[in-house]
C-alpha cells in the first residue's frame, strides 16, 4: 500500500463523549483486585502469552468496549460505531474508574470492569442515558498503546552472514512486508499482491517511521518495525485501511538495494595465472552465466540450456552493465558482475526480471576473439634439419589434438591411432588449419589457434564444435610429400618422348582408349618418369586427364586430339 496519508478522519460520533468527563484531576492508579467505592473491580478475562508492554499513565490507547448496567442492559458500545475509542490515560479525559482500570493492560488483553458511581457519573448520571448513582460494567479489549515519547522500534530476527552493504538515505529498495496493527490485525501485504514495494528511502516517499526503520538493513535481512502513529498516519489515519492514532507493525524482508549513483561492481572469483589477452570492446565472447536477483532468486542460466551465451561486447548487444562488466576478462576467468537496474533492465524489468531489480551474473568466460584476428602459431619444437617446408599442393600426414580455448577436448588423431592426411591448399580442412600447416617441417610440433571466422563459423558443427568457437590444434607433422606446381595433376620427371601418342597407342590402331591411357600413365609413374599429384585418387586423376584429351567425348583419343598441356610450362603435363 502507499505509505502516505490519503485523507482526514471524520469527527468522533457524539456517543463517544459518554465516557469523557473531565473531573479536573485523574484518579490515582488502583490495584487489580476487588475494590470498594474508591476502586473499580477488575476481572482479567484474557491475557495474551506475550505482553511486551502495559498501559501506563500518560499513554495513548485505542480500545473497544461494551458498556452495560448490572442488569445487562447496554448503554453504549464502540463496536456499534465500528471504531475504537482513542484517548490518553491518566490525564482526566476518562471517568476516574476507567482511567484506573486501563493501567497495566496488554494489547489484546480483555478485562471486565465494574465501576462504582463515585468513579463514574456519580449522583448526577447522564440525562436520558445513565441514571444517577449507576454502577457501570465495561467489557474492554485493548487494541493499541503508544506514548508521545516513543520512537521507532526495530527487532531484527534474521540477518544474513554476509552484509556488504546496508540501506542509506537516498537508496532505492525493493522489499516485501506484512503490515499489521499492534493487535495483529493485517491491514496490508505486498506478499498478497505478489509484488515487492519499491521506493526511495529517506527522501519523503515513505512515512517517517518507515524511512527510519529501513535504514541499516542488509539484503536478505528480516526485521519487525513498530511505528507510533505520530511517525505514521497520525490522527487522520489512511482512508478505510488505517484508523487514526494507530501504531503500525511492519514485518519486512529486504530483497534489493541500490543507489542511482551506483556503477557495476565486479568480484573476481577465478583468474587464470596465464592470461595472455584480455577482452576489449569489439571482441566476440562466449561465456556461461547464472543470473540471479540480489536476494539469490534465480532468473536465468546458460547452463540450463547447455549452450554458451555468445555476443559482441562494447557495442550495445547486451545490457550496459554487462557490456562494461565483460571488458578486461581472461579466457577461463570466473567473475561476479552486479548490475544496478539503471544499467540493467530499468524500472520496467523484463520477463521474469522485476522492475528496478539489481542483477547478479556469475560468469565463466569460455573464449573470445576479434573479427580482425588471424590465426596464432606457436612452434614448440623444430628438428635440427628444418629446411624443407610445407607449401600449397604438398601432401601432409600429421597428428593433432583439437580443443576449445577452455581446454575441452573435441577430437584427437592420437586417440584414433591414425594420422590425418590432406593436400595443403586443396580445401580439405578449414581455412585456418590450412594456413596453420604451411611452412612447417617434418617433425615440427606447433599449436595453432584458429578464430571462428577461419574455422567453423557461427554454425559450428552440430554435436561436435560449438558455433563461434575458437579452436586450438596441437599438431605434429609426420610426413611431407612434395606436391606438383599449382595447376598440375601430373608432370614428367624428364624429357617428353616426341612419339608420345604412338607409345601410348600400343596396338597401333590410331585410337587410344581409357584402358591404354591409364596403363601407360601408371607405368610412367612406376618407373619414376612421371609423377601424379599426391594425396588424390590416382584413377580419378588419370580419368580426368583422359577426358581432357577426348575433346569430342566419343570415348577415345586420336592423334588430332592429343596435345600436351601448356607448352610454356617448364614441366609438360598431359
Rg, alpha carbons = 47 Å
What is the percent of helical residues? 10-25%
Distance between the termini: 92 Å
Shape designation = rod-shaped
CATH class of the largest domain: Alpha Beta
Total of domains: 5
Into which percentage range does the β-strand content fall? 25-35%
Outline the biggest β-sheet: 6 strands, antiparallel
Average of per-residue pLDDT values: 90
The tally of strands reads 28
- Poorly predicted tracts of residues: 1-35, 567-573
Structural class: alpha+beta
CATH topology of the largest domain: Chitinase A, domain 3
Number of helices: 11
Quaternary structure annotation:
single chain
Please identify, by name, the CATH architecture of the largest domain.
Answer: Roll
Protein name: peptidylprolyl isomerase
GO molecular function, one term: calcium ion binding
Function: PPIases accelerate the folding of proteins during protein synthesis.
EC number: 5.2.1.8
Structure description:
The protein is α+β, with helices and mostly antiparallel strands. It has 5 domains: 41-146, Chitinase A, domain 3 (Roll), CATH 3.10.50.40; 153-258, Chitinase A, domain 3; 268-369, Roll (Chitinase A, domain 3), CATH 3.10.50; 376-481, Chitinase A, domain 3; 490-567, Recoverin, domain 1. 13% of the residues lie in helices and 30% in strands. The protein is built from 11 helices and 28 strands. Strands 1, 2, 3, 4, 5 and 6 form a 6-stranded antiparallel sheet that branches. Strands 7, 8, 9, 10, 11 and 12 form a 6-stranded antiparallel sheet that branches. Strand 2 (60-68) and strand 3 form a beta hairpin. It is rod-shaped, with a radius of gyration of 47 Å. It catalyses: [protein]-peptidylproline (omega=180) = [protein]-peptidylproline (omega=0). Residues 1-26 form the signal peptide. Keywords: Calcium, Endoplasmic reticulum, Glycoprotein, Isomerase, Metal-binding, Repeat, Rotamase, Signal.
